[in-house]
Amino acid sequence: MEGVGHRQRWNKKAPVGTLLLLMCMLIPAVALVKNCPVGDYLTKDGICCNKCPPGFKLVEKCHAPGQRSNCTHCPDGEYMDQMNFYPNCRRCKRCNKPYEVTFSKCAIDRNTICHCKTGYYKSKIDSETSQCLKCTPCGPDEKETSMCTPENNTVCGCKENFHRVNGKCIPCDTCTAECKEKCLSTHPPSLNTKGPEHDSGFLVNVIVGVVVALVALLLLGIFITYKMTKRSTKRKLLSLNSQTSDVSQDSCKQILISTVGDSEKTSVEATAHSSVVEVELAKLPDCIPLEIKIPDLIYTVLDQVPVLQMKQLVRSLGVKDTEIEQAEMDHRSCREAHYQMLRMWAERGMRAGGGGQGGMLHQPLLQELLDKLRAMHLKRAADELENKYGVQ
Q1: Reported confidence tier of residue 256, pLDDT bands at 50, 70, 90
Q2: Contact 317, 372 (CB under 8 A)
Q3: Pick the CATH number of 292-389 from 1.10.533.10, 3.40.50.10490, 1.20.1420.30, 1.10.472.80
Q4: CATH 3.40.50.150: does it fit domain 40-91?
Q5: By C-alpha distance, which of 351, 359, 354 is closest to 369?
Q6: For the residues 62-76, what does the mean pLDDT come to?
Q7: Of 115, 72, 112, which is closest to residue 91 (Cα–Cα)?
Q8: Are 337 and 327 in contact (CB under 8 A)?
């Protein structure tokens, strides 16, 4: 009986003990969640330190509650336009002469403000960078619909009895949807009478149209077959290169020949496949090496991409703004800073599995770079890289 009473007393105290245990587990977790006052930030040591005001940078953070961080003025030629706890200020912008003029000088709490001079307008490269371009005059067959301003270029439209084709204004010589006036003047409404001669001419036109359509379909079929064969060949070559870099040229030729042989269906298609084999075999000096040295690629990009568009390029490749600022602080030369930014992108891709070893870059990262260049309308730079590294 004494044992039963002891168990009953323990059962009544058990919920209280469990509750105390849970409280002991939750109290440290709650203590970790700490909110700092407005204008302060939480350090790694769990202390709320005050941020530096605009125009100042951090020299030393506080080390105990109630202490204040040590901040100092930004030096000449640098600024900081927000509350911060950064050890460095940002460099002031310099207006690009002779097309930009200084509207407002740089101060410790604000950057330089530049305006384009008369006859030029601001063209944005990215969210932070712009350049002044000369206002575009309207052509001889165009009329000005909106004047050039410091913020926008001239807007031109076609003159009367002209319409735009491929960016150019051409006269309305034929009756088209863009030239309705010409349709009314050259083809006035009239009664349409049909006779035997008209019916026979209509039949001839129908036959000619059918023949032209059949020829077009045949040519389209040949073109599609050629493209599919070429794409299949390229896929096999890429797969072969990823498995081993020591494949003989005879093995590559065998892949091309087997790809073409599987696709031969008609005598016309066989001719198209034969031309594909000749073209692809001519491009196989070492079975298409797809690895590129990273320093060589970066210097080629630096030579081809304008300096003002380098930040936009590396941002599109995934380089963070903090990494861009760090590169600019580490290197006074723009070229060296841009080299470091591109190096960050390439090394990140290698660590993620997109690159090789020993400073070599694989094809997927090069293709990503080519896509970004074309998206930024830098076709010439993309074409130069494709020609240099044999990308098709």
Answers
A1: very low
A2: yes
A3: 1.10.533.10
A4: no
A5: 354
A6: 93
A7: 112
A8: yes
